[in-house]
Amino acid sequence: MNFKMEYNLLKDFYEFLKFDSSFNDLEISNLISLLEKYRNASFGKEEKKILSLIEYIVLEDYKNQGELFTLENKYAANSISVNPFLIDKHPWLIRSVISRLKVFKRQEFMSNNKSHVNQINKNGILIIKDFCNSDLYSFLKNEYINKPVALNKNSTKTVARNLISFKRINLSIYREKYSGILLDEIIRKVFSLGFNDDFSQTKRIIRKSTFWQILNILYVDHDIQKDCHMDTFFPSLKFWYFPLRVSSKKSFMYAKYSNRLTFKRMQIDSLKLKKMMDLVPNEVLESRYNLDLKSSTSYESSLQGSFRYSLQEMEEMGLELKPITVPANSLIIADVSGMHSRGLGSKNFNLSLRIAMHGNSRHLNVF
């Protein structure tokens, strides 16, 4: 099902390593051969053996053997990704390639919904209109209409940090009768796409992360979610169920096909990491505790692994960020390793409200 995408991924990675890496020709050939074996390996011990061989080529006698494929977070500013002795071996991109191969493998074994899997793999985004039946839809309003304005990634005039309320919403949403029914349907749909290890993992993460997101999206507000960005170097899903119609100004914006790790994207992402080494003091790269977490900025988010992309970079990759407008009762599921943002917002406060059931299935067991 994913043979062509796998082939293109490994072909582009091979060309990138030949063009811009410190590996010699034999090492590159061995890496690509191991990646091909990984794709066809059985889950478990066989995979781990191949990853150990890949790690040996990348790290050699580096003191932290075992660190390459043990993720504690998605941060770009960590010792492996920006180590000056490893940067030209591109551990960030090696992780990214293998995480994509792992998703393809899961999809072959897990999914019985080939059409939706093909859509999310090809476009990076899946749109399902008329997601829930009319009876369920008619009852949902009573459960979201009186929710408070919810947590946003950056304080604005209309959206403030409110962690206590946010946690309360997280704990209660799947206990509400109709919201809980809707959430169970979303969980089943997300699981069928093959991005998670098993159903219980999918259910646990989504229940923990989901809330009714009530936002006033205003044109004048500074909001880093309006910057074109990706969330993770590995494939990862977020979803938005919109009970009401969403216009372009308030929409989720996505660049179709940006979930694909192309040769050009490898070049751009690797350059971003190298620039971090020049701009960020070594002591900050060595310890997350030195980062200023009091304010949320695009720069901080880039250090965390959520790279920002300029219009010029998008053009170089042949990508275009576009609004995803949907009618009422629509579900959007997006691979947020692709480029996305929030819409620019409305100039009219009375037209700026957007309501969504929002959550994610992100996990760090990507290998």
Largest sheet: 5 strands, antiparallel
Name the helicity range. Answer: 40-55%
The shape, in one word, is globular
State the CATH architecture of the largest domain: Sandwich
Supply the number of structural domains.
2
Task: Kindly estimate the percentage of residues that lie in beta strands according to DSSP.
Answer: 5-15%
Strand order of the largest sheet: 1-6-3-8-2
Q: Assign the CATH class of the largest domain.
A: Mainly Beta
Q: CA-to-CA gap between the ends?
A: 20 Å
Please compute the radius of gyration using only Cα atoms. Answer: 21 Å
Provide an overview of this structure.
It is a single chain. The chain has 367 residues and is α+β, with helices and mostly antiparallel strands. The protein has two domains: 107 residues, no CATH class; 213 residues, Jelly Rolls (Sandwich). 44% of the residues lie in helices and 11% in strands. The chain contains 14 helices and eight strands. The strands form two sheets. It has a five-stranded antiparallel β-sheet with strand order 1-6-3-8-2. Helix 1 runs antiparallel to helix 2 and helix 7 crosses helix 9. The chain is globular, with a radius of gyration of 21 Å. The protein starts with a helix and ends in a 7-residue tail after the last strand.
